[in-house]
């Protein structure tokens, strides 16, 4: 991923209901702070558009220099109920004012209420909740539980547990920590590990585009080709949709996978860190598949702003470890719990799951319409609800075209439509993720900007 040049560019001024651009981009006055970040942070932190956030409210992000962006990032799919929702902000302030901002694993009433609230919105049977800090931490916990479960229900031979294999998917992303990256399916992100776990294997993700075989027989063949027997599998973990590409699997595939896991006593785990809390037009993304997992990993939209995550699952899995042996320093931080409870309340009171489905239909239809205008450059558009991705390709095939994706994002930001840098396969997916509270007129304004931006970017490629 390249970094953005800190050289202000003259861009046309913009003044609409939701967007305002009145300076060069990046704003010249922001350069000292941006340069300070480059000086004191690792260069890995310089991959996002050079917009110096000052505040964010609802569906907009503001700098201190008169610019306002319509947000299509949700802070990387975090602010489902919008930035700094009044109820979430007040809940945070009230908790701070109450005087409890940290309590480690000692009991607190607000942690009890948060665990109860999350268990209530989970499917029946997923009754235990372990509160953590990040999505990667939740996925690491799931990996630990999968391995432990496999050793509990499997046998031993040649001095080694028989049932420890974890199956994940090509192009998957579960976080940037050791186990999460080993479980991920992006080779470039785990080359640093060197000694990869031979009992973590990947199979092709059946998205019908980069993974053209969408049959469950393909899953079985992939295991056989890697000499993995079903009895060896402790669990299968998948993103509900592949985060970088907004790609879903066919429901029939997942239903067969659920039955296969049941047959072989393997856990089925959905990484819902991006998909949960209404993002895809259902409360949980896996509802699109008509199955219930054994474990849910969730985060991001859980609080709409503060760092908290959770693993939700079956009692017999979640209770594999005894008292004091599966904990976390910041588990159920009281301030973060306050944000969770308020965010869940807003999702319910404002009917944001239904709203995501209704607005999402507009978003999906319109982004696909825009993509069809440029079939040589947009290989596919994936997504459901209020998340979508345009897969940018080089003409004549499906080879990813990262420079085109980057140009689309840069031009969008300069027009007042904020997106994060391209992600997904080859860094060539333009990801779209507005807050669920986005009004329809704002959504359509963003779509118009995207269409204009894509036309300009494609014209540059042609000429």
How would you describe this structure in keywords?
globular, Aspartate Aminotransferase, domain 2, seven-stranded mixed beta sheet, four-stranded mixed beta sheet, alpha/beta, 36% helix, 463 residues, 13 helices
Unreliable runs: none
Mind describing the biggest β-sheet?
Answer: 7 strands, mixed
Question: What is the number of helical segments per DSSP (H or I, 4+ residues)?
Answer: 13
- Main sheet strand line-up: 6-14-13-12-11-9-10
| Helical/strand content category | alpha/beta
Distance between the termini: 25 Å
The strand count comes to 18
CA gyration radius, whole angstroms? 22 Å
What best-fitting shape do the alpha-carbon axes yield?
globular
The CATH topology assignment of the domain at 86-349 is Aspartate Aminotransferase, domain 2
Q: How much helix, percentage-wise, in residues? A: 25-40%
How much of the sequence lies in strands comes to 15-25%
Task: Write a concise synopsis of the structure shown.
The chain has helices spanning 31-40, 74-77, 86-98, 109-121, 135-153, 178-183, 216-225, 251-263, 315-318, 334-349, 352-372, 402-414, 440-462; strands at 14-15, 20-21, 55-57, 60-62, 68-71, 128-132, 156-157, 160-161, 165-169, 200-203, 233-239, 267-271, 295-298, 309-313, 378-384, 387-392, 417-418, 429-432.
How does this model look, in words?
It contains 13 helices and 18 strands. By secondary structure, the chain is of the alpha/beta class. α3 runs antiparallel to α10 (334-349), α4 runs parallel beside α10 (334-349) and α11 runs parallel beside α13 (440-462). The protein has a domain at 86-349: Type I PLP-dependent aspartate aminotransferase-like (Major domain) (Aspartate Aminotransferase, domain 2), CATH 3.40.640. The strands form 5 sheets. Strands 6-14-13-12-11-9-10 form a 7-stranded mixed beta sheet, with helices on both faces. A 4-stranded mixed beta sheet has the order 3-4-5-17. The longest helix has 23 residues, at 440-462. The model has no long low-confidence stretch (mean pLDDT 97). A hairpin with a 5-residue loop joins β4 (60-62) and β5. The chain has helices spanning 31-40, 74-77, 86-98, 109-121, 135-153, 178-183, 216-225, 251-263, 315-318, 334-349, 352-372, 402-414, 440-462; strands at 14-15, 20-21, 55-57, 60-62, 68-71, 128-132, 156-157, 160-161, 165-169, 200-203, 233-239, 267-271, 295-298, 309-313, 378-384, 387-392, 417-418, 429-432.
């Amino acid at each position: 991923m390249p970094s953005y040049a800190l050289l202000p560019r003259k861009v046309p001024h913009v003044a609409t209901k939701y967007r305002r651009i009145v300076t060069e981009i990046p704003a010249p006055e922001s350069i000292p702070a941006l340069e300070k970040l480059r000086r004191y942070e690792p260069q890995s932190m310089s991959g996002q558009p050079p917009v110096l956030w000052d505040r964010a409210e609802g569906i907009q992000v503001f700098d201190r220099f008169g610019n306002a962006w319509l947000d299509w990032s949700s802070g990387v799919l975090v602010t489902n109920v919008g930035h700094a929702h009044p109820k979430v902000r007040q809940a945070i302030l009230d908790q701070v004012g109450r005087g409890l901002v940290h309590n480690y694993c000692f009991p607190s009433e607000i942690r009890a209420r948060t665990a109860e609230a999350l268990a209530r919105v989970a499917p029946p049977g997923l009754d235990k909740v372990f509160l953590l800090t990040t999505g990667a931490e939740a996925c690491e916990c799931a990996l630990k539980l999968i391995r432990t479960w496999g050793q509990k229900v499997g046998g031993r031979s040649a001095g080694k547990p028989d049932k420890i294999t974890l199956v994940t998917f090509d192009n998957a992303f579960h976080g940037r920590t050791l186990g999460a990256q080993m479980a991920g399916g992006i080779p470039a992100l785990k080359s640093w590990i060197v000694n990869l776990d031979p009992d973590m294997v990947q199979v092709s993700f059946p998205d019908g585009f980069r993974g053209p075989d969408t049959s469950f027989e393909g899953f079985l063949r992939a295991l056989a080709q890697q000499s993995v027997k079903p009895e060896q599998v402790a669990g299968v973990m998948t993103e509900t949709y592949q985060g970088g590409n907004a790609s879903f699997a066919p429901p029939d595939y997942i239903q067969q996978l659920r039955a296969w896991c049941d047959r072989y006593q393997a856990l089925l785990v959905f990484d819902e860190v991006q998909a949960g809390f209404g993002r895809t037009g259902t409360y949980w993304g896996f509802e699109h598949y008509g199955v219930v997992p054994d474990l849910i990993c969730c985060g991001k939209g859980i609080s709409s702003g503060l760092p908290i995550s959770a693993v939700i699952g079956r009692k017999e899995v979640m209770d594999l470890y005894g008292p004091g042996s599966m904990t976390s320093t910041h588990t159920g931080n009281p301030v973060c719990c306050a944000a969770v409870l308020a965010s869940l309340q807003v999702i319910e009171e404002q009917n944001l799951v239904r709203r995501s489905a209704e607005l999402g239909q507009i978003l999906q239809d319109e982004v696909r319409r825009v993509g069809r205008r440029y079939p040589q450059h947009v290989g596919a558009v994936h997504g459901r609800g209020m998340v979508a991705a345009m897969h940018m390709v080089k003409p004549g095939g499906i080879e990813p075209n990262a420079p085109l994706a980057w140009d689309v994002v840069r031009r969008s930001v300069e027009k007042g439509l904020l997106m994060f840098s391209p992600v997904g396969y080859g860094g060539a997916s333009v990801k779209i993720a507005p807050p669920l509270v986005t009004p329809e007129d704002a959504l359509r304004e963003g779509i118009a900007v995207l269409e204009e931006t894509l036309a300009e970017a494609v014209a540059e490629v042609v000429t």
